[in-house]
Amino acid sequence: MDLPVEEWRAHVHRRWRQLPSSAQAALRTSALREVLRHCSSLLQPEDEGFLQRLAEGFSVEKDPDACLLYKEEGNKAFLRKAYQAAAGLYSKGASHARPNTQEMALCFANRSAAFFHLAQYETCLEDIGRAQRHGYPERLRPKLMLRKAECLVALGRQQEAALAVRDLEQSGAAQQASTGAPDLQALQRRLSHLKARVREDTGPGEAPPLSVSHASEEVGPRAKNERIPGTSLSVSLRSDPSRGRYLIATEDVFPGELLVKEEAFVSVLNPGETAGLRRGLEAQRDGRATPGDCHCHRCLKPIVATVPCEGCSYAKYCSQQCLQVAWERYHRVECPLGGTLLTLGVFCHVALRTVLLAGFEAVSNLIKTVQGTVSSEAASVPDGQPPGQKLNTRPNLAESSPHGGASGVPIPGCDRDGSYQSSYYAVFHLLPHTKKHSPEHKFLCGLSIVALCRKLGEADWPPRAQGPSAQEAALTTERTPEPSVWAEAMLRHVLQLHCNAQGVTALQEAGSEGDLVTECQQVRLATGLFPAISLMNHSCRPNTSLSFRGSVGSVHASQLIARGQEILHCYGPHEGRMDAATRQQKLRSQYFFDCRCQACQEEEVHGAGVTPKQGGFRCPTCRAALQGLDPLGCSSGSCRAQVSRAHLLGQLGDLQQRVEMAGELLRGDRTARAVQLLLACRREAEDFLTSEHVLMGEIEDRLAQAYASLGDWPKSAAHLQNSLQVVKAQHGPASVEMGHELFKLAQVLFNGFAVTEAVSVIEKAEKVLSLHYGPENEQVQELQQMKACLRELPSHPGEPTA
Ligand SMILES: [Zn+2]
Ligand SMILES: [Zn+2]
Ligand SMILES: [Zn+2]
Ligand SMILES: [Zn+2]
User: Where is the MYND-type domain positioned along the sequence (predicted)?
Assistant: First the structure.
């Protein structure tokens, strides 16, 4: 999804292999302008045609048939009383409807009915307004007005309700003669009923119904650091030749302290399974929601009722405001390019949006600085500088600033007064590592950017508002030997993203609607650039946790960080999830460095594979732990058993497959069968795996899930206790994984009314999760609500304990 689609990559690979070696050699250059000049002369009309055909395979255009189909599916779900599903289907229908048409109005009106049944009255009112604005048919109006009045009554807005009822009566009288009115008699019965309710209710109005609780707006770091926007005063920027730029703690930082809170400079929503967007595929029609359907394409917040772009079926927003801001800042350029952007991948899309957000002036000034001061932009980057570190071409005059490097060397990316800029200036100075990318990769990126710029040229871009110089620059794009500044900046950003892209994640509920225990998983929602967060270096054993709320990233200390210690976060390869060799390989290929973090150094000393973090094997004879590499020998002195590694791995693989199968059964609601299979798996696992083995934990966790769906809370809790032990051994008692497992246990105990135990587990979960995510986190808030709810219960001495 980051890179272009497979077919385009394969096409460019074929083109690369056909290039004469002289052309291939020319692309070894690290000067981006040179790369673009070559790519520009190499991109043929056949290539553009091929890309165009691929782009046409992604449907981002509005399709009236799809609109009708989704609306009908929505109606079916509505009749089944599956209102949440119906709302989702109407949303999909609306995204395919053209603005100001009856179809659009009907999708919104029907969706308002679904929200009405979900008791989401505010959202229902908004949708009624949308239906009216898009031309809801006059003959159906009374039905809609009645729903509006009912919402107002439910919200306790009596005066508005009374007005709505009066309007309704007047228009109802006018409708009397009309034949097309929907079931007029039933309507009138409901109307008189409603009138009675409005009259009855003369008091101050009932309390509005509980809607999804909105956590209080997050507060920033304790004290703001003026020099590095978004960071706390306990943080300072340093730089040295071996580590490049990095952050340290200027005072002791306690676990849970908020260190950085930063809004993405740019972020682009991950399209998810692009297969689902391919034209003609069944997947497009099945109504499954992708992250792009339930999160705002601008602010990334979860959406209840989407507001679709009026030009395409792809972009959706949480509000009219987000739609407008997105349109003005970037989507008016992106909208007609929908299919091309999906074909070229998220990195190209982020690169385009970055320059659109920065604006022509900022982009061209920085590109000119680079061109003017150094002939090859990488010439000033010292070789061997660690990745993620950024170069500055503008001299930094603040050598005596407290943020100066230890050696007095100015810190790249800081402006004249020594402050780090969380702006395009900082983004621009993230390192593109042009020397380290292979020539073929540069060819792929360069060709993609040149093709994108030509499409932009066709679309008469940039918009005229940006003045003649901007237009001149863009219209000379690529056909002439001078690549435009836009192209050069975009190529730079695509290459930077390789090392500096930050995945924006969100917790998504994996279970189905109505599950009492939510099974959450981290999903990658978007890709963005965060100038302050990207100042942190990597460690496979980080001392911070990174979490997101929409497009805002927060870094909390996950342990005590002593004054002077480096603040570290994990780029992905974490010691709890991967062995050292896999981590090193990943870091080398993506980030171009060898990790020397504490975890990696320890594993180097003790040797890999002796004490696997994932848990070990047991002796088949005496059940003591096995040790050694191959064959493994029994650790008990009296036993001489030996087992080959291949045998154990085979057995483990078989068992893993059956655990997977049980997962399938659970998802297919064949719970009893799943329990049988899992219990059998557990018996087998006990024979050859230690009790801390990761697969053992997985079996226990699935058993807990199965019993929870059967409503057997005590059994579910017992299995979760077992899986907690595994998680604790593997990730540590204060780990975020522990927090998630405790959260599940809290839900199970809560549902089972095991009050005392539940409160104690809730408190533990709250402590661990707020340490990693801060007190405003949704799960933390939910735990607090659960606790409040339990405290209100009269205590029963004879309560069942799980
Ligand atoms: Zn939004
Ligand atoms: Zn659009
Ligand atoms: Zn490491
Ligand atoms: Zn033994």
Answer: 296-335
Predicted pLDDT at 215: 40
Q: Among all ligands shown, which has an atom nearest to the Cα of 542?
A: 3
- Give pLDDT, residue 245: 86
Ligand nearest to the CA of 306: 1
- The pLDDT score that the predictor gives to residue 459 is 63
Q: Give the CATH architecture of domain 235-264+530-606.
A: Beta Complex (2.170)
- Measured in angstroms, how far is the CA atom of residue 245 from the centroid of ligand 3? 18
* Nearest ligand for residue 623 CA: 4
Report CA 310 to chain centroid distance, whole Å. 24
Provide the whole-model pTM.
Answer: 0.80
Query: Which residues, at least 6 apart from 165, have a Cβ–Cβ distance to it below 8 Å?
Result: 149, 191, 194, 195, 198
Residue of 499, 507, 495, 508 whose CA lies nearest to 571: 499
> What type of residue sits at position 592?
F
303 CA → ligand 1 middle, Å: 8
> How many angstroms is it from 604 CA to the middle of ligand 4?
28
Q: Which of 444, 478, 442 is nearest to 461 (CA)?
A: 478
Q: Which residues contact 745 (CB under 8 A, 6 or more apart)?
A: 717, 720, 721, 724, 761, 765
Q: Label residue 743 exposed, middle or buried (CB < 10 Å: 0-12, 13-18, 19+).
A: buried
Ligand 1: centre distance to CA 119 (Å): 22
Residue 319 CA to ligand 1 centre (angstroms): 6
Domain ranges of the chain: 64-173, 235-264+530-606, 613-703, 732-801
Query: Distance, CA 697 to ligand 3 centroid (Å)?
Result: 25
- 436 vs 439: CA distance, rounded Å: 9
pLDDT < 50: residue spans in the chain: 177, 179-181, 202-218, 274-275, 279-285, 373-408, 463-481, 609-610, 797-798, 801-802
Contact (CB, 8 A) for 196 and 174? no
Q: Phi first, then psi: give them for residue 620, nearest 5 degrees.
A: -65, -20
Residue 718 Cα, ligand 4 centroid: separation in angstroms? 29
Cβ-contact 519, 510 below 8 angstroms: yes
Helices (H) and strands (E) in the chain, counts: 30, 15
pLDDT tens figures, 343-355:
999 999 999 999 9
Ligand closest to 600 (CA) is 3
Rounded to the nearest angstrom, the distance between the alpha carbon of 585 and the centre of ligand 1 is 38
- Nearest C-alpha neighbor of 148 from the set 113, 199, 98: 113
Burial of 86 (0-12, 13-18, 19+ CB in 10 A): buried
- How confident is the model over 417-446, as pLDDT tens digits? 777 765 888 888 888 888 888 999 999 999
